[in-house]
Design goal:
Radius of gyration: 14 Å
Number of domains: 1
Shape: globular
Helix content: 10-25%
Order of helices and strands: EHEEEEH
Number of helices: 2
Largest sheet: 5 strands, mixed
Strand order of the largest sheet: 1-2-3-4-5
Distance between the termini: 28 Å
Strand content: 15-25%
Length: 118
């Protein structure tokens, strides 16, 4: 994976789940705060993209597009990805452990939201 300039994140927001809580809200958090990193398997027309911040990472796209060595920059992150990424993650990283999480969702509206076109 290579790092892309963070100002390109709006182009990839639709690749990630929309959420008000938990790790799935990471893309909106990075977009709002400009704190974090954007990754892709290649600079031009990527097949796989990731966004990371604070040791957490969202991974999206085509798991088949990843070479095992490409995942090295993503090591030591808590990864949220579709189950199809598990074989690629297991091949590319030394230690992959499944971890189920529970997220408490407050019934109040968030203070701000990132507007997504479309």
């Amino acid at each position: 994976m290579i790092e892309l300039p963070l100002h390109q994140l709006p182009s990839y927001l639709d690749w990630f789940p929309r959420s008000d809580a938990g790790q799935a809200a990471l893309a909106e958090h990075v977009m709002t705060t400009s704190r974090g990193r954007l990754w892709a398997d290649r600079a031009d027309r990527p097949c796989t993209v990731a966004v990371s911040c604070g040791g957490h990472l969202l991974l999206s796209g085509d798991p088949g597009a990843l070479r095992p060595s490409a995942l090295a920059p993503l090591a030591r992150h808590y990864v949220l990805a579709p189950s199809g990424f598990l074989p690629a993650l297991s091949r590319g990283l030394d230690r992959v452990t499944s971890w189920e999480r529970m997220v408490y969702v407050r019934q109040e509206r968030p203070a701000c939201r990132v507007h997504r076109a479309g």
